[in-house]
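Subject: Re: docking follow-up (adenosine-5'-triphosphate)

Dear J.,

Thanks for your patience while I sorted out the input files. As discussed at Tuesday's group meeting, I've set up the holo structure prediction with adenosine-5'-triphosphate included as the bound ligand rather than trying to dock it afterwards. The sequence and the ligand SMILES I used are pasted below, so you can double-check that they match what you have on your end before we go further.
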Amino acid sequence: MQFNNESQAQEQKRVDQVEQIIQKQLQNNTDNLAQAQHERRQIELNYGANTRANYIETDDIIETNATLQQQRQLMTSAVSNEVIFQQKQQALKSLVGSPYFGRIDIKEDGEQDTLYIGTSSLTDNQGQFLIYDWRAPIASIYYNGTLGLVHYDSPIGKQEVQLQRKRQFSIRQGQIENMFDTNETIGDEFLKNALSQTSSAQMKNIVATIQRSQNQIIRNTTADLLIVQGAAGSGKTSTVMQRIAYLLYHSRQNLNAEQIILFSPNNLFSNYIAEVLPSLGEKNMRQVTLHTLLARRLHGLQIQTPFERYEQEQHHFPQAAQQVRQYKDSLDFVQALQNYAQHSDISCAFNDLIFEGQIFFSKSYIQQIYQKLPAALSSADKFLQTKNHLIKALKHRLQKEAQADWVLEAIDDLSTTEFQNLEQQKHLSQYSSDHQQQILAHYVLKRHYLPVYDALYNDYYFDIFQLYQNFLTQLQPPKMAATVWQETIADLQEDLERHYLQLDDAAAILYLRQLVTGSGQNRHIKYLFIDEMQDYSALQLAYIQNSFPQAKLTLLGDIEQNVYAPKNLSQERFQTLTQLLPQKKAALITLNQSYRATAAITNLAKQFIPSGAQIQSFNRQGQTPTLFQTTAANLSTVTGQLADKLAKKHRSVAIITKNIQQAQTLQQHLGNQVLLLQEESTAIPDGIIVLPVYLAKGLEFDCVIGYDISAANYQTSGDWGILYTIATRALHELYFTSTPKIAAIFHKINPQTLNIQKLN
Ligand SMILES: Nc1ncnc2c1ncn2[C@@H]1O[C@H](COP(=O)(O)OP(=O)(O)OP(=O)(O)O)[C@@H](O)[C@H]1O
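The structure tokens for the complex came back this morning:
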């Protein structure tokens, strides 16, 4: 419903009042913040002075320690004061100019109330709410409810209210530009407006226009495995970012951003989403790519990246290699690995522990310890008990050596500084001289045998690579020639010799290590998010889950955007997820409405994939996509000219190729006004860029040109998913260029959804 001027004037009056209050609070808070910063700096100065205190006399040490302790407490409280004012500052600043976007009129327990909703809450001096945070329980009815009797979940249980009015605002620089009353979830007009904007280098938050199905994902706190299958552009990533903000708000007391981790497809994407949470007044969660995690944990080895693998497979991917890849991606492979870890005798992978060129613990000694343990114990327990046994044996050896001549000599040789440190840590002077001697001997011995301790704690006597090879050797993948499998094992051996590991093997080795040794788990993480989950194999997912065993999982993806997977694997992947992950309360939410692109683009793109009929386009008008056909010799020039023309009207124009080599060749042809994005790139510049499809994952551009969609380039039905991914990166305009013989899928396209122009 549109408004008369009087209603709008009344609303504008309220906006003005709220704006004034925000400015006033901002001023007060700036003063408070400056004061808190000053106090913190003073304490820092004192702290510095005290740390230079006298450490020679025992009394001085005790006194200095007490003072330091006190200073530390003061510092902690000063820092936390400052953080509170900083957060408030950020929240207030985010309200300036656009304090809220929604209003609801409700009747609850017979009482009438009007609530305004914005990105964070604001109260006046009497504690009355002027704005409610969009994450407050009551605000959920703004997103969910149509008018009438509605419910919302509050800390004291389900509440029932009459929703009498829902109003949306667009307020900029303190002026109401537009306002609407709506009976629906968030009205089309506002959404259309938000979606018609040009692209930006950073993803924006969507709090003002969250849709009902997205809201279900954002506010779900019951599922411990939430799977979101959503069409391209349906808002999966946006939703997940708002979900993180929601979770942080709701569990303020026992959840912080450090306990949330998001697996993202690449660094460009990580950078693209980095501003969403700060724009909502929250700190960013941790972000990692699978490759970074693997490389960090397999330090010293070079790990194949998903992009390298894709590129290699583009050039050479024979039938046998495809078969191996399919098997290593399958649930069967994961189960075989789990089974092996649990039930096999892993003692073959123990090694002699060498110290100063001599065997310290022999392989057979370690094997005996392991094999004597009860068979019913889990592998990880057996491993741990073996390790504990070795540590005990080392301690025993240390005790026996305490009186050795070299130890006594080493005690005599201790420096004054070492003595002072020991005095401080162990309070030597409190003990009898015999006891002091024992402490010093223990210190000297521990220092000497530190490499042995190190080897024990870091499992250097255990060869995980050997164990993995043994595991592969005893496997017989179904329907695969024995020679193919043996070759795979030989390839692994060769890779290891040159300190290289393929992506599949890296994850499998780490997973096996985790299962067998029980190490490498991070129990601190409470929420784990995986975006573009269709790109992960069953094993990679199992490994990630096991790495963060306490985390609730949210997995998002689109089975159709399976750029990396050999065809038909993805469907299987989704079905096996619930089998694979031990979570109990699983929920699956499907998003079929695509928001990113104009209806014309979505209606074309959905024809590239088998399940396209389910995808609903958003009612936003735009030009019909166009395909330019030209000769092979002219293809780059035609693409460049088209890009130039588009760049005059739009902020971002992306030419998307099938692989890096095509991107490089094209960029060289087009010259420096076109920027090539590569695996190492971290930011998306304005203007014309050229990039391979896998780097475009999760991103969006005003205009997209799918380069060279000729039959020679896109040959099999497995390639249609790639075309779908390319097409769905476009917000406003979509083009393709090709040589005269176009990919077969284009012959099946409804001619009304694609213009074809033949050029020379
Ligand atoms: N409720 C919404 N309000 C406003 N904009 C929205 C909404 N939902 C999605 N969008 C916009 O639609 C576009 C696509 O969203 P997003 O990138 O989150 O989708 P996605 O499902 O992760 O896409 P893909 O799988 O293709 O990477 C973004 O520009 C986002 O801002």
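A couple of observations from a first look. Residues 191, 194-195, 204, 206, 209-211, 214, 230, 232-238, 558, 595-596, 698, 700, 728 surround adenosine-5'-triphosphate (CB under 6 Å). The chain has five domains: 5-93, 100-198, 207-301+523-593, 353-458, 599-758.

Let me know if you'd like me to rerun anything.

Best regards,
T.
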